[in-house]
Amino acid sequence: MTLVQRISSAAAITCCLMDLLASQAALAIETKQVMLLHSFGRDFKPWSEYARTIRMELDQQSPWPLDITEHSLVTARSPDEDPEVPFVEYLRALFAKRSPDIIVSIGAPAAAFVQRHRQQLFATTPMVFTAVEQRRVQYSTLTANDAVVAVRINYLAAFENILQVLPDTKDVLVVVGTSPIEKFWKDAIAREVDPLASRIKLSWTDDLSFEALLKKASALPPQSAIFWELMIVDAAGVVHEGGTPLTRLHVVANAPIFSYDESFFGNEIVGGPLLRVADSSRQTAAVAIRILSGEKPSEIKVPVVQFASPIFDWRQMQRWGISESRLPPGSEIYFRNPTLWDQYHWQIVLIASVIFIQAALIAGLLYEHRRRRLAEGESFRRMTELAHLNRVATAGELSASIAHEVKQPLAAMAAQSGAALRWLAQATPNIDEARLALEKIKVGSDRAAQIVDNLRSMFRKESSSTQRPLNANILIGNVLALTAHEIQKHNISVQTAFSDVVEPRILGNQAQLEQVFLNLVMNAIEAMSASHAGTRVLQVKTAVSENDVLITVADSGPGIDPKSIDKIFDAFYTTKPTGMGMGLSICRSIVQSHGGRLWASRGDSGLIFYVSFPVDVS
After folding, report:
1. pLDDT tens sequence across 254-305
2. Do 126 and 47 have their domain in common?
3. pTM, two decimal places
4. 547/605 same-domain check
5. Are residues 47 and 132 part of one domain?
6. Smallest Cα–Cα separation from 150: which of 102, 105, 101, 100?
7. Which residue range is the domain that position 323 belongs to?
8. What burial class does residue 163 get, using C-beta atoms within 10 Å of its C-beta: 0-12 exposed, 13-18 middle, 19+ buried?
9. 516: number of CA atoms within 13 Å, CB side?
10. Quick check: is 450 in a domain?
11. DSSP secondary structure string, 193-218?
């Protein structure tokens, strides 16, 4: 074989392979024709819901493009079979050139039609009978090209569900029309529900027009319920499509409505164990795909679709007062009105968290505020105790001055009493001189009593709220009189410059303010007694401005380091070897509690203390 011949042979083989692959690819993507045959029409429930979901499942499960056509067997609305002849001729002409790849009949009338005319129309076309109750399937006439996805309507379970959720029910109105299929199910319901005859009474609507049915449903006796079977053709011969008849019934009915198929669920019926549309449609599409893939229809067996777990409409439960505790175990509740928690749980959690944090902060602040008040009260109590102890300690230091002050009026009183006795003991008593002596004795006793009162006032415990108008000049004079002995003992010269205002008045507690100035004067005495050089001078001045009374206490002692002036008012800070460092701290606290100020500065020699109080204008 020459090279040219080999090349030609290889090209021929390649072309054959390409043609084979192309034909297989064309076969693989060939559109599958699917025919859906309705029993009554495209808008009759429940079969319309089955058709819709079957189309959706086919589109999802099919690996091929699908050409789905739908046709309706309108003759199922009438018992007369003669009108089927033109419909048979129509289908024969429609599919004369190419039969559908598969036929899916929806509902019992469509299944019966196909079985009656199979040999005339589609003798070899595979078929799937779906949405048909197993009692309506003629299994004896099925062929090898037929598969069935049947359902089982358990009417007894449906009516027992009514009695479980509404145990007081006595009467049930069964809505059913006059078409052949509706008559079939009327008889089936009567037979199957017969065991409940002692508990409920059934009434029927196949002898009523739909308007009469609505009137009857609006005036049912108490303890009644309505069971929706079908309403295709009423007694007046009117055909009813879609969900309109059930909706109109729901508007006027004075009793709850129940049914057996999920396609009726969602607005009008209460609920219970129902046939799920999705269960049948999913199985139907799966069977159809298996047949289109080459499986033999008669060998495909699927279980009968039965009632699923009960589902209930929360809105209808609320309308008819059905307690959730009456529902069968495993029930699901749909359309429950969401609670505020369901709608805004994140917002509620956030707000609650903020409120909780705020409450915790407020509680913490209140707790700290209470602790602070208690601490302030305890601090003030301790300060008062320290102030009292300071006064007692000062009293010990001033004991000699106190004894001297009290001894002077007592000695004068003793001398005057002796003189009065002598004037009275004369042969001719000198009454005038005796009276003069007695008057001096009274003056001395008043002076002694005043000294004792001042001492008691200074050294007793007294509340800071006990305040009264005080004359600043008299206040300073009392303190200087009390310290007169110490002043003389240390050879100190006192220079006073009191304000010429008649009464430079301040509002305060006399004992506490006397303690302040007593501490300042005693500190000045101690500072000057430690210095032996130079003249020892204590200067005390009072001055009054428009708003303040200023009192200064200056000494000629050695003073202190200017850097330490700000520290001398700190608690426990002292420059004395035996001091506690509490005197000036207590003095500042007392002055501040009276609305005043206490500060110090270094003079030409020694320290100057300034005490300022608001003028009492009351």
Report:
1. 999 999 999 999 999 999 999 999 999 999 999 999 999 999 999 999 999 9
2. yes
3. 0.56
4. yes
5. yes
6. 105
7. 155-274+307-334
8. middle
9. 31
10. no
11. TGGGTTT-EEEE-TTS-HHHHHHHHT
